[in-house]
Fold:
Amino acid sequence: MSEENEFAFDWREVARLALASRLMDEMEERELTPQGHVTYQFSARGHELGQLLLAQLLTRPLDAASVYYRSRPFMLGSGLTLEEAFASDMARAGGMSEGRDVGVVFNLPRRGRALVLPMAADVGSQFTPAAGYAQAIGYRRDQLGEADAAGSIAVVFGGEGSVASNGFWSALTMATTLRLPLLFVIEDNNYAISVKSWLQTPGGNIAANLASFRDLAIWDGDGTAPAEAAALAAAAVAHVRDGGGPGLLRLTVPRLSGHSSVDNQAYKTEEERAAEWACDPIPALCRFLVPSIMDEGEWRALEETAAANVAAARDAALAQPQPDPARVTGRVWAAGSPRPTVGGLAAAGVTLPAGTDQPEPPDPRRLTMVEAIRRTLDGELAANPRCLLFGEDVGHKGGVHAATLGLQHKYGEARVFDTSLSEEGIIGRAAGMALAGLMPVPEIQFRKYADPATEQLHNIGSTRWRTAGRFAAPLVVRMPGGFRRIGDPWHSVTDEAAFAHAVGWRVAYPSNAEDAVGLLRAALRGDDPVMFFEHRAMLDAPSARRAYPGDEYVLPFGRARIVRPGEALTVVTWGAMVERCETAADAAGGNIEIIDLRTIVPWDREAVLASVRKTARCLIVHEDFQLVGFGAEIAAVVVEEAFLDLDAPVLRLGAPSVPVPFNTGLMDGMIPRVEQIRERMEWLLGY
Structure:
């Protein structure tokens, strides 16, 4: 399409790819799945037309799309080859995930049309990253002065079932309140597996329900009628591209196959199936093109060409090798992976100073941990114009813990800003921004509040692995937690073990201001997503105060700190328990070595094992639940690798598996106390 006539669709391409997509679906359903070459198949039959029209419209340099599992026609229109599509469904080495992910869970670096953000199979999870990417388009245009961002948009696809999801409503709120260049495309086939659309939204029509939604333009029509679908797609994209704000395009389409290859559609009547086939867009496309644009002979030639191309692509994909099992653990971390094509500072060609691991305090004044965190964020905002801070109350108020106090006034609302009250939206937005080459630093006010965002957090961590290293989403999630002067079940949760078990996340848990500075700066200058825990009790605790170690201080992850050396007992701990272990050691006497891990992923195995081999005794203390807490991992490694060096059992001390109580006395009875730690120290010393 030319810039002068951007909505002059290439109908021959639409026909060629629609025919190819249909033949691929039929071949997989009838041949490749029964033969076992495709183990889990999702068909796009009936959805082809609108997707292919929209693909042709997304040609600006920063145009991007966030798709779902029925989006293969759009992928073909965006540059995915037939062989890549087959190879993805066959889980071959040449697929878009190299066999790691389901074949229709797509990603695609830009090939002249839209960049396709890495999707996840969670229904509704595609929406908030698209909103974050759309916000990043405006940031890159207005704050970074990138001319390529002007007029670029994001498009997000979903079925009518997805409009019931948290992600849809969170993205809708972001798009409309911020007037983002984001187009929602809802393909309504009336079925979410077997559940009809009236159970997803009142009346079964999300477009009608949102007709009065402020700052949202609505288009609603037939996704199988070529002229109508083309007009709707062109109008919707033009509106969003020209600065009209977000829009929603609902296209009604038939689902001409089951939800997947294991769905026989027994819940549909014969009359319903017949009515769906009567709406097949392929015959409608033929009637539209013949004879007005091409004659019947050309259409038949397109069919023959499509059949030959699909067969050749199938054979080529079948000839591809299976993925190498030896590489299954690769591409999780930036280290050891190729530089990603999309996502993060590395892909954007931005490098920040490596810094130094030697503290150089500019003055001796001791800062609280929260002051140190604020000063570090201030310095990195100044050093990196792609760095943004956001979350609930992060802006004007300066955060409920005051960690961002004054930063919005200094750097402006585009860089330090408040968000709507949706953790799914906060983290999903951050994912889209990271994929757009920014360094987002979202704050979750308290660890418990991260629960609604768990889906997005897991998807971010596995991005590099799922896309075979093509994409990465490095960002830093700041998350206060733990007890303070009082506790309760909602604000005092720690639960770091849950994130230690998540793929692709580095986890920091500093116990003092100096370590917080070094680890936070390492995270902000790194290429992996980081969970940065800020213990509430340590934010202003006198024991956590340190001199500011300088603007270039960077503390590598996985390097523990020997709090005090000793020869008789090794105590391994982190966070607020470091202070309690020191107090307990003073009371217990003896020559006790205390190790502050500082980071949970990675953790310093070498330092712990070296200490245990020296002392022959080990106590692990943490605030999180003892049951399946991270201390169990440490104990298992010590027993596996230093068993013959031990002179006593490895002991753990954690919390019982109950929520943190509100009553102060009850809370003190739950969290490991100094006297409990002392008792275990003395028991091990006397064993």
